[in-house]
Structure formats: C-alpha cells, structure tokens
Amino acid sequence: MNMLQTLQPVKTTLLATLIALTLACGYSSKMTPGAMPAIATLSPSSAAAGGAAFVLTVNGTNFGTKAVVNWNGVAQTANTTYVSGGQLTVAVPAAAIATAGTITVTVTNPGTPGTGMYGSGGTLPETSRPPLDFTVN
Fold first, then answer.
1. Looking at the structure, do residues 65 and 108 belong to the same domain, yes or no?
2. Cα of 96 vs its chain's centroid, Å
3. What is the pTM of this model?
4. Number of structural domains, the chain?
5. In CATH, what number is assigned to the domain containing residue 109?
6. Cβ-proximal residues to 91 (8 Å cutoff; 6+ apart), any chain
7. Are residues 42 and 24 part of one domain?
8. Same domain, residue pair 77 and 119
9. Based on the domain organization, do 60 and 6 belong to the same domain?
10. Do residues 67 and 1 both lie within one domain?
C-alpha cells in the first residue's frame, strides 16, 4: 500500500469532522419568529369617499418600534408613526379614500438581522392576521 492510499481514510475523517463541527457551531443562519402584532381596533373605522386626508389610529398589541401599517397590502413606511407597543398612527392621504370600497389594514413588524459571525439570532418579519377592514362609503 502506498502513502496516498494510507492517508485517504485520514483525509476523509478530517473532512467529515470539520463539516460536523461547522454545523454544530451554528453555521446555518437560523431565523426565529418575531413578535406577532395583532390589531384590535381602527379609529376611525370608516370614512366618506372623496373625503379629506386624515390620521388613522391602529390599536392592538405587540407593535414593534419599527412596525409599519399596511393599507391594502402596501406598506405605509413614510406615513406610519409608532406611539407605543399598543398603538400606531398612519397619515392617510385623500387619494387613498377617493372611491368607495373596503380597505384591508394590517401591521408588519419588520425582521431584525442576525448577529455574530454567521448572522444567527435574527427574527423574521411578522404581519398581523386576520386583517381588519376599513370602509370607505
């Protein structure tokens, strides 16, 4: 048996050990679920079609400091204001209530990036379920 044939099992064992240690040390960037926001009420809960711009107050629980109100699925990033863990406000422009209909309102807590060498420990974004309806009549 030559020297290369003798070292082959050693190389294979070392490679397997390195792979096992890498995975055991948290190499995978596992994200955990974030805080699930929940909406309890909207104030006001309706507006007249063609009305003026207004501020919508969203009351609920588990709102993160960077939570965003979604108006018919569109994140109102620039218009959302964090008041507390139980309240957000969003400036609704007149154009958003120009015509009658039902608007779905949800809140999203954005995810947070992981830390450390492999980015582990981050959280996933979470959006409130079920959505609440805002009526434009």
1. yes
2. 23
3. 0.73
4. 2
5. 2.60.40
6. 53, 55, 76, 79, 81
7. no
8. yes
9. no
10. no
Q: Which domain holds residue 61?
A: 38-136
Encode pLDDT of 68-123 as tens digits.
Answer: 999 999 999 999 999 999 999 999 999 999 999 999 999 999 988 877 666 667 88
Spatial distance between the Cα atoms of 105 and 107, rounded to a whole number of angstroms: 7
Alpha helices in the chain (DSSP H): 3-24
DSSP 129: S
113, 30 in Cβ contact below 8 A? no
Pair 37, 61: CB distance under 8 Å: yes
Return all residues near 90 (Cβ < 8 A) that are at least 6 apart: 55, 56, 58, 69, 71, 76, 79, 80, 81
Shared domain check, 52 and 12: no
CA nearest 112: which of 31, 52, 56?
31
Mean pLDDT of the 9-26 span: 57
Rounded CA-CA distance 59/83 in Å is 10
Joined together, the tokens standing for residue 75 give 């994140």
